[in-house]
Amino acid sequence: MYKFKLSRQGLASYLYFLFSSLWIVLTDILLARGNLELAFNHSLKGLLFAAITSYLLYFWIEKSYGAKLKVQQERDEAIETYTKLLEQHGLPQLLIDPSSGQILQANEAAANYYGWDKEKICSLKISDLNTLPEEQIFVEMALARAQHRNHFKFLHRRADGEIRDVEVYSHPVKLNGRSLLYSIIIDVSEQKLNRFAFERSNQLLKSLVAAIRGMMRSHDKQGIADAVTRALVEEGKYAMAWIGEVPNRSYMPIEMLSKWGDTHNYVENIKITWDSTETGEGPTGKAIKLGKPQTVSDINIDPSYRTWRQEALKSGFRSVASLPLFESGRVAAVLNIYSHQPNAFDGEEIYYLEALAADLSRALVNIESISKYERIDAERLAAISRSQEALLEAVGALSETIEVRDPYTAGHQRRVAWLAVEIGKQLGLNEDRLKSLHIAGILHDIGKISIPAEILSKPGRLSKIEFELIKEHPKVGEEILRKVSFDWPIATIVGQHHERLDGTGYPRGVAGENILEEARILAVADVMEAMISHRPYRPGLSLEEAILELENGIDSKYDGNVVKSCIKIMKEGGYYFLVMAATPIKK
């Protein structure tokens, strides 16, 4: 049997009509004093009024209740959206009450990252994670809540006590009438270590270039030796460097030719030989006897350095490298380099220092036999060549580091460099500018070292915050490369390769002729290579589609002459070359 069921608003209207009708009928009968016809007429009008008002009441309640229900549904949907956003995102995310600092929600990624389960994290306050003083944390949350700042750099503590470098993106959200902070946490500890490694590589590279330039300008043995030791200390940031000449007799002390950075007269206060006694068993003596570089990773514990340990620690030295310098096949001198840090000399560092030692050996040998003018010309040419080779080697190493972190675009930088140089040839650039294009192309994405690897390798569409991080890579690359003394404006070219003629590019919105020609060339080469290359998340465009895309941007985004040159190259075989170069070989 069908059961009639009233809604809440229907029940309220029905009860109103029922009781008001009863009231009207009873009062009309009493007031009519036995005149039933009069009572009937009055009751009829009253009942009609009750029916109309109950009907209006129904719709008023329906509208009010519906609006309230809609608000509640929207609130529930918002909560569900944020809950899904928290749970499904691969990065650690927290929902925080800024008034108390209480963590209200955490996703699985946050639990895994911090080392607590979600229930435990939600019992903590943000001050239990953030190493800042609590009052400073509330200041930072107030800035995020007012949207004066949304990007922060903190040190966060994990369950095991480990302190990690993190970047936090925090934005205010409204849930259930409460103003909360929705925070995404990105661990940048690895990036900071990578940045330190790059800065160290830059320092080393600068010291090599400065040493070569110093040797070019020097006219005698002393000048060459001083140029090298000075460059290693001032540009390479080593604690001290000295060069000692090897005496004919092994028991005789090594004779100092040059030193830089020794504020405690360490070299004068010690005795070093190359015989079999204790004074000949250190890294300098072994380098002479073995003819190979020698290192002491930690002076404080290495038994071979016990003879000089006290003086070395007094001077603040913790590690040392000794590199032999050859003349006619024998070790004629030794380059000794000291650091305030233990384990300062890894394989890469020794590789470059060996190259410098080889150059220094040749310079010291040649200085005695070449005439002044011939020597200057010969050393200048040799040094320029070596400097350029060193730069190109470093460039290749840096490029490969980026490709290891971004496997989806492996080889992209080399292919962009090739296409940029070919465009430059079409436009009539000289060899010097073509070389700058090649280096800039190889390094144009070096700034991606600052971007978390999970974002670089993400197969799907990037979020707004993730894309904002990506857009910072030209600026970061420019900052890194500005520390290296190139003969070309490499840093500026890299910093501008995502700028566009109409000013809509990034990171600075540079427009028109303010964009270097090399950067305009690199921009087109970068876009073309990216469009035709396959990615795991989308196929590459055909040549016709890529050409149409470039042509649509002529004189608005891209330089017209550059686009025409690029299209000519692609039609004449460049497309086939790039596609084949980007296609993995099946084993």
UniProtKB/TrEMBL annotation:
It holds the Pfam family HD_5. Residues 409-531 form the HD domain. Keywords: Membrane, Transmembrane, Transmembrane helix. Gene3D superfamilies: 3.30.450.40, Hypothetical protein af1432, PAS domain. SUPFAM superfamilies: GAF domain-like, HD-domain/PDEase-like, PYP-like sensor domain (PAS domain). Residues 387-582 form the HD-GYP domain. PANTHER family: CYCLIC DI-GMP PHOSPHODIESTERASE PA4108, CYCLIC DI-GMP PHOSPHODIESTERASE PA4108-RELATED. This is HD domain-containing protein. It comes from Aerosakkonema funiforme FACHB-1375.
